[in-house]
Please model this.
Amino acid sequence: MKEAWICTTCGTQYELSEHPAALCSICDEERQYVLPTGQVWTTLAKLQKSHMATFRREAELIGIGTSPAFGIGQRALLARTPHGNVLWDCISLVDDAIVEIVNGLGGLAAIAISHPHYYTSMVDWSAAFGGIPVYLHAADKSWIMRSSPCLNLWTGETREIMPGLTLIRVGGHFDGGTVMHWAQGSRNKGALLSGDLLQVTPDRKFVSFMWSYPNFIPLGEKTVRVIATRLEPWTYEVIYGAFWDRVVPRDGTNVAKKSVARHIAILQREAR
Model:
């Protein structure tokens, strides 16, 4: 029987096959890792029996996570607008309970994902809500492990997917790394949904810029300056990171600018 196998380390779902691959292509790369104990796979059906969804308000948005934690451990965000709801980033688990609750909150019109580490079960998520479009930047096309007509590969530097919701390609962690600007967020002061392209730090006073978070490889100065340039036209009060409680609650535009300056200053610091 063919299954859409899911890597338990990163949560990525693969094309239907009778047997899983020897290694997950997403994890067998310097931005991720394969566990010392070896590659492990599961399926959505098994995940539905072993895990459950968690819902919690994150500032103005609804966060959707997995309990117990699975894969990288990120949570998705439900952005509700008068023009339709968008799921920002994705988790591996989708089941009847999630669908019923999300439909009760207004349903889903689209999914947008920041980068390949959070592609997870995006095809099954789309199917669960009637085949809605999933927006991914075309620069990361080679990292798509399960194809589907629902995948909308956009190009260029920005893409408005709904009035007030604009995808911005910042690059960095991945070439197509994307953040989403929500113009009406924070009482029309703007919000930035950043995934971990701009990773909100535990103290929620800064964001960080990394090539690999688990392997501790920072982004270089030139790349961080490019990210800052691509964000320059946009203002936002709040920054939503990838994990529970990783939300910068105020002054987000200046926090991002200060974080860029700090990152570059540390890279340039001389030994003492």
Q: What stands out?
A: Helices lie at 44-50, 96-104, 122-128, 185-188, 221-231, 252-268. The chain has one domain: 3-268. The mean pLDDT is 98.
